[in-house]
Description:
Elements: E1 4-8, H1 19-27, E2 32-35, H2 50-65, E3 70-75, H3 77-86, E4 96-100, H4 108-122, H5 129-139, H6 142-148, H7 158-164, H8 170-176, E5 181-186, H9 195-201, E6 205-210, H10 217-220, H11 222-261
Parallel strand pairs: 1-2, 1-3, 3-4, 4-5, 5-6
Amino acid sequence: MTVQVVLVHGIRTSATMWRSQVEHLEGRGIPVTAVDLPGHGTRMSEEFTLDGAFATIDDAVRAAAQKGPVLLSGHSMGGLVCIEYVGGEDRPPVAGFIAASCTAIPRGLGLATYRMLARGFDSLPDRGMWLTDRMLDRILPAETRADFGAGGYALDAQDIALRSLSVLDLLAALRRIDVPLWFVNGQYDQLRVNERLFCRVAPHAELILVPRTTHHVTVMRPQVFNAVLDLAIATVEAVETSEVVETSEAVETSEAVDASDG
């Protein structure tokens, strides 16, 4: 069965940030769904809640799982929420997981500082968008610059979303993840703060570090991230094929034993 890909965006942005990845996957004939979380993109009028975010991801994953094994990829806030989701006790039908730019525990001084900076930007004229746009113009390539903000910026949802992340028990979730897992970080990403801890705790994790790249690894180096998706898809395909072969061999062995007993 064909691997199905589900993509979850980061804070403030939307599903449009994944346009380069969607184009790449569709060009390969890989089914892909990029969701908008509550309060973001096409759902800007809704209030962001963790329950709503989990429900959005779960709906997309379970719909895709009816057609094939699911590779889930989340960026930044979306990655943090996906860690909690994939490592949930009910074991959702995810066959592989890419967690991009999200190796940080959103609690304590770090989260408080991030929220303070975000509120500071929000208090500027035009809510700081002039400064945000100048920064993005400098770091993002022309091929993805327009896509990153094409769905609008969820400024009203930002502080609510940041505050809600503090309840996530990421380390417990990581210990429960038993599918292939890739952490993908930019070399200069501020959310690398707990990178070593995450890699140590997660039993099936590999770390991919992208040189000369900031937090916006998916849009700053789209070709590199597309290659990571290709690697993950190939891995999920290999695992699924191996499981099918092992199941088939087990059935044949059982039938042979039953025939000899008869």
